Structures are given as structure tokens and as C-alpha cells.
């Protein structure tokens, strides 16, 4: 059985070395807050790949990979706790939620819903195709290619993007209200000073 731990450690080491070299070239004049955010996102991507594709079995009953290409074919079982599909699709949804929220935060070019949705679709499709190819290579169908999994991943990313928009709108509204209150307070102070100046 192949686990993700050695591959993840190798990727983590290479990414850390890349950031160290980049920081050294810039004489450590980096936005540490932004660097930590990118680092956390990279760890999230590693966890996403680990949960989606690993562990990979090397022994089992040889058979052809299974493909379920009917959209929403398992939707009627998705909310049933007895079938186990609820946990499966909830995991796909939950793992994609940070993706939709993190992309617009880290990259200004990704602050469009269509781009986030397209990227999440291709990411989920790549994961499903990778599982299918690995199953064909090892001869054991350890992952089922499901269109519904792709759809739930896109839904999770869409909800994450909506959450980011909601938080951004809330912060913008709060800033506007605060600015309005400051303007009104300054006008009131000016009026009080003007009134005192007019007193005999």
C-alpha cells in the first residue's frame, strides 16, 4: 500500500526551500502574513490530494475501473446515513469549501465566481481522472469515478466563494458605517466650535 506521507514530506520540503530561497533573494523583506497564508493553502492542497487519492492499494481483486457518469444519479442516497453516501459527498463538499474561499483571498485575479467554479471543476475532474488512471494501472478499482463527486466539489467551492463575498461585503458595510459616523462626529464638533465662537 502506497501512502501519501513520503510524497507529502517531499513536496513540503521543496515548497519550504522555495520560500526560503525567495525570502533570501528579497533580503527577508516579505509580507510574512501573506507568506503564512500561501503556506497554509499549500498544506490544504496536500491534505486534499491525500484524502482524494491515498492510500493506494497494491493488492486486491483485479477488475476494470468503475465509472458512474450519470449526473445526480446518487443524489437520492446522498442524504441517507445508512448508505454512507452522505459522509462521502459531505467530505467532497467540505474539502472544496476552503478552496472557494481561499482563492479570491490569495489571488485578486480569482475574484470572479466563474473562474473559481471553472477551476474547481477542473480540479475535481483531474482528481477523478487520476484515481481512474491509478486504478487501471494497479489493476484494483480503489476509487470510483463519479460525476456527482465533481458536482459536489463545485458546490462546495461555490459556497466558499459566497462566504468570502459575504464577509467582504460585511467588512465593506462596516467600514462605510464607521466612516459615516466619523464624518457626522467631525461635523458635530465643528458645529459646537462654531457655536462657542459666536457666543458673546
Automatic annotation (TrEMBL):
Protein keywords: Membrane, Transmembrane, Transmembrane helix
The UniProt record lists the keyword Membrane: yes
TM stretches of this protein: 6-25, 37-56, 89-108, 115-138, 150-167
Domain VanZ-like: 83-167
Keyword Transport attached: no
A family per Pfam: VanZ
Protein name per UniProt: Glycopeptide antibiotics resistance protein
Annotated InterPro entries: VanZ-like
Amino acid at each position: 500500500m502506497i501512502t501519501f506521507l513520503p510524497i507529502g514530506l517531499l513536496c513540503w520540503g521543496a515548497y519550504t526551500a522555495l520560500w526560503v530561497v525567495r525570502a533570501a533573494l528579497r533580503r527577508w523583506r516579505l509580507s510574512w502574513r501573506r507568506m503564512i497564508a500561501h503556506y497554509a493553502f499549500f498544506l490544504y492542497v496536500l491534505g486534499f490530494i491525500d484524502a482524494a487519492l491515498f492510500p493506494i492499494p497494491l493488492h486486491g481483486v483485479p477488475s476494470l475501473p468503475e465509472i458512474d457518469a450519470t449526473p445526480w444519479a446518487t443524489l437520492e442516497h446522498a442524504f441517507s446515513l445508512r448508505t454512507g453516501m452522505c459522509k462521502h459527498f459531505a467530505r467532497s463538499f467540505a474539502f472544496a469549501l476552503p478552496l472557494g474561499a481561499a482563492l479570491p483571498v490569495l489571488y485578486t485575479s480569482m475574484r470572479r465566481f466563474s473562474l473559481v467554479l471553472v477551476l474547481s471543476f477542473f480540479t475535481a475532474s483531474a482528481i477523478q481522472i487520476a484515481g481512474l488512471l491509478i486504478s487501471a494501472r494497479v489493476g484494483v478499482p480503489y476509487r470510483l469515478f463519479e460525476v456527482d463527486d465533481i458536482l459536489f466539489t463545485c458546490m462546495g467551492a461555490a459556497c466558499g466563494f459566497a462566504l468570502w463575498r459575504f464577509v467582504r461585503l460585511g467588512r465593506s458595510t462596516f467600514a462605510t458605517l464607521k466612516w459615516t459616523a466619523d464624518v457626522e462626529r467631525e461635523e458635530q464638533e465643528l458645529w459646537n466650535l462654531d457655536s462657542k465662537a459666536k457666543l458673546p
